[in-house]
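Annex B. Sample input.
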Amino acid sequence: MIFEDEKLLTAHEAATFSTTELGVPLKASTLGKLRCVGGGPKFFAIGRRRLYLPTDVRAWVAGKATRRASTSDPGIPLISNIEPAAVKPSSSDAWANLGKRGGRSV
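Annex B, continued. Sample output.
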């Protein structure tokens, strides 16, 4: 096979793989949304089909997992070479515009 001797999975198969093999509930519709907005596992676009490698799904799940002491703890990624994404406020961000009206401070 072309792709590292692994079977390519459809979104439904990748969601089932995540749920049954990895113990992380996931729906195919969630993968579809993440393909549009970003933040999901890597995928291949072959014609109209979007396909996933099981190793990419596994790596994505592992990258999302953090170990926490409490709900307020930001957590430590279980994979040490993954850094948390920096959040940049946009002009439409409610926190960035807090207290501003028409360019003046309130």
